Amino acid sequence: MIQTFTHPRSCDFSPEFALFVNGHPVEVLRTDAADFANFVYDATQGPIEVVVRRLTGEIPRYALRPLSLELQGELREDGALVFEMAAAHKLSVEIDGCRPLYVWANPPEVDVPSEDDPDVLYFKSGQIYEVGRLEMHAGQTLYIEGGAVLKGRVSAKNADNLTIRGFGIFDGSYFGTKFQDGAKSIFFERCKNVVVRDITMIRPSAWMIVPGACERVEVANVKQIGEVVCSDGIDIVGSKHVHVHDCFLHNNDDCVVIKAFSMKNRKHADFSADLRISPEDILIENCTLANDPAGNAMEIGHELSVDRVSGVTFRNIDVLSVHGQGAVFSIHNNDRAVVEDILFEDIRIEHCWDKFIDFRVSRSRFSSDNERGHIRNVTLRDINWLRGDNNEGYTVSLMGGWDEDHRVEDIRLENICINGQPIEHVDELEITTRYAQGIRLVERSAPSLVNSQ
Prior knowledge:
The chain is mostly beta strands and 453 residues long. It has two domains: 2-106, CATH 2.60.350.10; 132-442, Single-stranded right-handed beta-helix, Pectin lyase-like (Pectate Lyase C-like), CATH 2.160.20.10. It contains no helices and 41 strands. The strands form four sheets. The protein has a 28-stranded mixed beta sheet that branches. Strands 1, 4, 5, 7, 10 and 11 form a six-stranded mixed beta sheet that branches.
């Protein structure tokens, strides 16, 4: 089964690419950062053929990423790029001289809500809806049908059992597309049992999904393209029991980040909230992350104005890029928290530039506590970095405490590989340390580059 979507004609369509899946045309839309296409594919019915045509020239060289999927393409005599998929993958098709084309295959929906249900806010296909600020209430489902575009922002406070879903597009540009506009796209404050799944999010002016002091949150199969600085993908602020999985996040700031602080916003008063609750039991897995010039791929911090941050796991992640001054693995403890029991496992990095690991206890403009904190008991396991020649001598790692009493300590580096080969000494990561101790290297066999999904 192949399901495609028809979007309003006033949407921005790609002048660069045409896409066909098993002969069905799939609409390709455009943002300032990348082009993208969504369709539904039932993988139980066998493999599919995907055809990409460039409308403005030839396809000289290309890559199908994540590389861990090991997809093989072919350039046909008519100039088209052809490849086969046997699962509902989310890909970056990268052609020399072009912006990325994100090809997002989605598994079929189950339990589609009824538009006649009074607890369902139903936005039908083929239309653009300018909702401004939409407030959700307990028990409601916001459903954006594939082919629909919702422009605005969504919020809820002290409301449980909330769902946002559908294969439609959530467009944050209603409140502006500049960093100064600062409107968070989805903000849930002190809510329980929250689900955000399947939607595509584009053109934010600030953070995109923010569960603040929430419990039992699931974010699944969400696709994002954030363009401006501060377009964080998923900000888990003072929340517990959070599961983020099977997402594709392109952000011009942190892709996934854990924080806890008292949030203030002069322009949008409803974004001001005391979210100083210790985050715990957070799992991010089976995701693809692409980070542009600002921010980090996987971040804890900067704002950690609580006693403790613990039980955070990043697992089975493909990092396509960290292009700017940020890091792949980042813990910035700028407040008093004890950050501990953190696991990064089965991570594949295809490109990073400035920093590989950045763990620091420090003070910055984001600090609100006078007391400094700690970072301890962190494990990086089964990591493979496809390091290019131009990284050597430039891409560094930092591990720094604040003083003798506020250290970075007990960091376990287990089976860290560069281009598939386990490193033999931490110096191979160009690590600079200060007030750091217990950095241990543990060797094992080289991990597979194949995605474990």
